[in-house]
Fold this sequence. Notes:
The chain is of the alpha+beta class.
Amino acid sequence: MNTPELQVNEMVVLRPVTRRILPEVMEAYTEDPESAKAALPWLTDGTEAHRQITDLMIDLEMHKSGETVHFWAIHSKENNSFVGMIGLGDELQLAASAYNLGYWVRQNWRRKGIALSCVDAIFTWLKNRTTQALIEITVHPHNESGLATCRSICERWGGLAISDYVAIEIGGRTIPHILHLVQLDRGDIE
């Protein structure tokens, strides 16, 4: 099934990722490389990051008509500017999981509830097209804003944090993360 455009709220809309947004993504990366690396921990520093982000955009565009990966660019409804990215990926910690959720919001759009509103739109879309899906969200334990967003997602969608850390391999190093799980079932109350 194709990744659809999703209406979120009066501020933003979700559009399937295409490589055409690469200049805007690179501009956002240049503004705040550390938060980009928190969302995409495999990114390396310097000029190599440009190639890696380019490869990512091409890869995500190729997946937009598949079932295993769904990624969206978040765009402002006011001026169509790039706000961030959010998606359902296939790099999973648990065999029972359907997707992992990842997101990245530009610095000047943070603390406005954008990520949570986008998650609501995506989870509602996903619930309407499947009987059930277990969604993973992994967050580094020092990423306070990421943990706060995960708590909000879990409160809203009946998810939970796993008490033990999960080990995620990043750049040849094992980094502990907190794993949050959200079980979506058709008919869940929003």
